[in-house]
Write the structure tokens for this entry.
Amino acid sequence: MKLRLVPSFAIVSLALITASLQAADAPKPLKVLLITGGCCHDYAKQKDILKEGLEKRANVVVDQIHTDDKSTKPPLAIYGNADYAKGYDVIIHDECAAGVSDQATVEAVLAPHRAGIPGVNLHCAMHCYRIGNPNEVVGDLSQPHNFWFQYLGLQSSGHGPQLPIEVKILDKESPIMKGMSDWTTIKEEHYNNIKVLDTAHPLAHGLQVVPSKKKDAEGKETVEEKTVDWVDIWTNLYQGKTRVFSTTLGHNNETVSDDKYLNLVTRGVLWATGHLNDDGTPAAGYGPGGK
């Protein structure tokens, strides 16, 4: 009996060793830090929609820093801590902190990106951490007014009404947009472009038809329509080394939970970390379930 057990034991041992080696060789999940909270959005739900959607689509683990505070100065735990992103592969900024403008705080938020940690920015992140008048066009990038815009690669100061946006792809060869088609959103906020910096690479722009009321010389009111055209998906190379992906889309839960949106953000995360193939598929080991 003992002689018969030896081969079985050896086979089991070999299988365990093989499995252990395969596990050691398997790519580790990307560590993603998702920051949410602040004014004007349903972050309580959106944070979980994003976490579940990203973890379903790629080999990532999403940790969250969140506050239920609804003000424009949400008390996020990252403030004042330049090491808040230590150990993470990418940071997703999805907060709405339009009132946070203290230079030291802004520089601490930027510290990980200045050190080379990639960033992904969604919707209201474009209107955070603005020092001074956000309508003052970016000039000297060494000035505090321009710190956040330099990181984003695009300066925005506001948005119009919630109306459908026709999203038109500009760079269909980009791995992020590869195989995607133009689409029209539900009613969404369309963020303006004060300036697109030279370091930015627009991937898609949006067309939104906005009604405008006017009065003639006799005081009679008429309604005219105008089409506003802004870049709403782009990449940026921050300080010549840090990959940054951004989209101004994503105000409403229905948009955030849309497969097109979650696929787009997932590709943005993979691109920013260097794990996206040229054809838009995840690099080996970084697809769903580590495939």
